[in-house]
Amino acid sequence: APVVMTTGTGQGHMPLLIDAAMQATANLGMRMVVLNGRRGDWPGALPAHVHWSDWAPLGRLLPQSRAVIHPGAIGTSATAMQSGTRQLLTPLARDQFDNAARLEGLGVGLSTPGRRATDRVISNLLRKLLQSEKIAAQCRSVATRFDTPVDLDQMCDQLVPGRGAAQAGLA
Fold this sequence. Notes:
By secondary structure, the protein is α/β, with parallel strands linked by helices. Helix content is 44%, strand content 13%. The chain contains 8 helices and 6 strands. It has helices at 15-27, 58-61, 74-83, 96-106, 119-131, 133-144, 152-159, 163-167, and strands at residues 3-6, 32-35, 50-53, 67-70, 86-89, 109-111. It has a 6-stranded parallel beta sheet, sandwiched between helices. Helix 3 (74-83) links the parallel strand 4 (67-70) and strand 5 (86-89). Helix 1 packs across helix 5. The longest helix has 13 residues, at 15-27. The relative contact order is 0.14.
């Protein structure tokens, strides 16, 4: 199974981070899928172990992967949790640092700031991530939480007290 890397919607081209991840997966003898819409900006040929795609449905790809490397955007984070996929987070900006800290605290991944993510750092974290039965078990456990259907009316009533009464004309 490959390691998937996505740079996220707002990140675009991140050559140093992508290059470090490609080198890390090569060092570990792993296949890699890079999801980034700016392949035309990438100089030269890709290594043989790397497949590049502009986009792929993460909900279908992640269950077939070993792990996902990503900056920590909430959409990728949630899809990885739903699929039970281990996460190596490389936050770069905005809410990504908070998301990475929360996901690491939840036990579903490991993180390092994107600007510090050298091939050596990624290799070490990826090895630790994939060898940890504790993280694998926690990923499986969190994934089961997505199996329960959500009652959106009940959720809205919990988030907005008095919402049900207002809708019924009682407020």
